[in-house]
Input
Amino acid sequence: MENKEPVIDFSAIIQRYKRYWWLFVISLLACVALAVMYLKIARPVYLVQSIVLVDPEDNAKPGATSMGSSLLKSMALGGGSRVEDEIVVMGSQQLRMQMVKKLRLNRTYIERKSFFNRVDHYNDSPIEVDAPDALFDTLSTSFQFKIKTDAAGKADVKVKKGRFKTLAEASDVKLPATIKTPYGIFQVKTTSFYKPGKDYNITVTVTGNIPKAEALSRVMVAELLRKKANAIDLNTRETNIQRGRDMLNTIIELYNQRGQNEKDQQAINTAKFIDDRLELVYRNLMGSEAEIEAYKRAHNLVDPELQAKSVIGRQDMADQAIINLEARYRIVSMIKDFVADPANKHAFIPFSADSTAASGAISAYNNLIMQRMKLENSALNDNPSMQRLDGQIDAMRANVVNGVNNTLRAIQVQLAKAGSVSGNATGTMRTIPTTERQTRALYRQQGIQNEIYTFLLQKREENALVLAATTPKGKVVDEPYGKSEPLAPNKPLVFLLAFLGAILLPVILLAVKNLLTTKFDSQDQLEAITGLPVIGHIHHNRHDEQLVVKQGRNWSIVELFRYVRNNVQFMMTEADDKVVLVTSSVSGEGKSFVSLNLAAAFAMLGKRVALVGMDIRKPRLAQMTALAEAPGVTAFLAQADTTLDDIVQSLPDVEGMDVMVGGTIPPNPSELLLTKRTQDFFEQLRERYDIIVVDSAPIGMVSDTFSLAKYADVTLGVTRAKYTRRNMVKYFDRMVAEQRLKNVGLIVNDTKPNQDNGYGYGYGDSDQ
Output
């Protein structure tokens, strides 16, 4: 047989808590009141947003189209940038700290005008707290200045950290006032917004720049607007929209300023290098021109080329090749000198060799230098990332040197070939005067110097344009603006939480109460703590008589006894089952009351019923029924000549029901119940009656009931709401597990009407 999944009985749960409806009403009113109070006190939080467009920079700038254009195109005045990298920069701790300093966000001013009215002052506080900027740079915690001023201008100042720790205090002081704290000296003073004769109650929260910047990182976000877009969504959550707009504007301003500074610094370094090389090349060029002039004067030359046009044509081609190669060789040598100079260890290489072997390494080296320049703005030299990047730069610098050397060797080979061609042409010019050959050498040297000089002049102009440009790195697409609807507090959500809290709080309180209490107060609670069947419950008896079950009565308590009677009949599975043993855990749970009325309920069926008082230590049946207290059961058990008829008494109010009271209390009750007379007693009862209800002693106090358990067909354990302890119910479970009691069912006595499992009988609760 498959195990069935447990079914949650929601109706039973609702019924269980229905009696505490007043607690749910109070909880609902309290939670709604708290929600309304929270909405009154809570300051609305708005989303302030701005869209910034960042254009990636070109990796190279165009050069000239003259001879040597491949060399001119190799100069790189800027490195590329990815939007993801710019997001990191825009959201960096350094920019946030600069923003905190600039906007003085390390101090917040909240004026309490009433319990529900609190004003967040931003740049308009009537009172401010001031201190040197260096103090906020080193302050690593936060604390509050509670400032109260009166109409006379006197102020009470209390500096507190947390709720209970007071750092400093000053009473009845005139502003401005100096306050000494363990963290430094602060000045409390009035501003232009202060109105004399007015009372103020202002709380100033003072925070260090670093903690404030870290706190802002949780509400200020820079993220990619969408994929494949160069736009950044910069937003923050703020209670003051103007402050949020100023924060975003300041971040964008600082970001653009930082980008401009990086670009300017790069251009300045490039300009210095170009100027140094221009000065050197200019001196060489002037020297070449002076040498040509002197040579011509010495040899009276005007145009020697007319002497050998045919030979010169071939040699011109070779010479032009030599000029180009020499120019390339000089530029590559400049790169080699630049890299070898320790002063340029972390500087951009301003030239790129016209060679695949060197240009790739130079481009990779410049990219690493760009990364280092960005990283050193926000990291120290001993930062692991900085050290790792320096190692990569050193390795790449070696690759650059190796590539440059390979390029120089290749140019030398090409120069040798061009020189060979030129030499062959020279050999055919043996008739040309030596002066012509020497003149050509001088012109060739002048051409090389002139080409390099023109190249450097062009780069200087390009670099000047870069330095003069002030285009911001980030272009604002949407100026910072605040959303019309606040993010928080969310009124529907607050009221929903209040409603849920109104339901959950009573449930939790009742659950905790149920866990802490040692008693129970209803049938369903008893069922939850025991594995034994609970066959019914009995309402509190609001009548003056103990015998409530009588013919013709339809009171609800009578119906409950009939319900218990029917369940007892279901427990009598054998034809000869007659004896119902009624017990309890301790005295006072109402077992005698239950025994009396249960027996009467059986008698109403027309059965012959015997109610036997076997609680011989503390007999109560005689008192409850107004019958004679003797002779009783103890007389039958102790005296052999006492018969059953001697102790039987009839109950006038209930037809067919006989009562045998306990009788005189014996000195040895336990031993008396273990005699052969007890067995004979039950045998005679079985022969004469259809139902025998035995009122026995509590099992938690004496062992008498266990002596009678062997004669019982059904055992009823009577418990009492808000009286019986849970551990005594567990005691019933243990006795059944040890087989000291058999066929046990539990009854809950003294419950409140209409509060047990929702049982209703249609007779009302008046019991009239």
